[in-house]
Fold:
Amino acid sequence: MEIKEKIRKFVANFIKTEEFGDDDNILLSTVNSLFAMQLIIFIENEFDIEVDNDELDLNNFNSVNAIADYIAFKTK
Amino acid sequence: MDSRKIKCVVWDLDNTLWDGILSEDGAVSLKQNVVGIIKELDRRGILQSICSKNDYTLAMNKLREFGLDDMFIYPQISWEPKSKGIKEIRDDINIAMDSIAFIDDDEFERKEVNFSVPEVLCVDAADIDGILENDAFIPKYITNDSKNRRLLYQTDIKRNKAKDEFKGTEVDFLKMLDMKFIIDKVHEDDLARAEELTVRTHQLNSTGITFSYDELKKLSEDPGYVLLIAELKDVFGDYGKIGLSLIEKGKDRWTIKMLLMSCRVMSRGVGAILINYISKMAKKNNVDLYAEFIHTDVNRSMYVTYKFNGFKKVSLENDIESLKQSDDFVGVIPDYVKLIDDESIWN
Structure:
């Protein structure tokens, strides 16, 4: 499965798929600690990377595209 | 000296809670003193459960007959090893293994539990008369929230059941809950609960620092600080007082010195809402908003919450990380929560 597809699928557990595009801010509508943490754990486990505390920046995780870019950066 | 505090007592049934073996002689009778002990533990806010090798329906019916079925949450009644049942209870309640006590008359069962989960405090049923005086079973605080703790968990069980059956997204579920988030400053009668929150909360805790009753009392009266306590309610009932925050009000900057939320509300988004509420008030007062963070083994999700709400690291000194919220970050308080506050608490 393509990276973005995996991310979309994860996010869709929380928000309706038709309600977010790849550039839309997904954190605004689901700003809860559990989602935030699950998102980080999902990214770390699914793509086998470690998110450093310094990289825990809003801009790295606020949309499907941002997350995909971040993963691409970490795995290159 | 063992300084542990028991948060959950797990009872065996046959020859522990009652005399006799239910599956053999049906006509069992409650042990003397047991009801008094159960009621007293409940009053102290210690949760109770069952771990018994029995037929589930038969045993639950018998407990109902004795009027005790409501006293136990997540009862594990099956023919599985007891260590397995205790692990289930631990996972369901989400507490540390060493805060569980297990009462059983059978030495074999106690040994099995002791071997598999050595952190659990095993008590011989013959010794239960002493447990109410045992320091491990005497909580430091008995507050309104602790007296209602079983009820709070039972309400949570109903919520979780509704969630499992709910077809839709997380956000849809949250909308259905019709949550009310009530923010107020800490008053005298909140101090014990506030202290308890600093001691009991680990995961959603920005510093892990505990405060004593007297320290909190002083801070709540100090005009240089605002000490907030937050309460949550929804269609299923109350969650109790579940959040606490200490804000230092400087001339040009406010600093969130402490922010914590009970892990029972982890999936409700109220930590972020409290941050955004404080942020809104800081903007209104034309001050920058800072937060102090101390990393512990378990509080990463609180760090993520800060970071995802526009906070950036500005310095690290003596393990205290200082974060500052970007000026251009605009937090949103989601429309599925009704926030109730009294702005005069900031004056």
The first helix of chain B runs from residue 22 to 25. The two ends of chain B are 46 Å apart (CA to CA). Residues 132 and 278 of chain B are 42 Å apart (CA to CA). Chain B is about 35% helix and 25% strand.
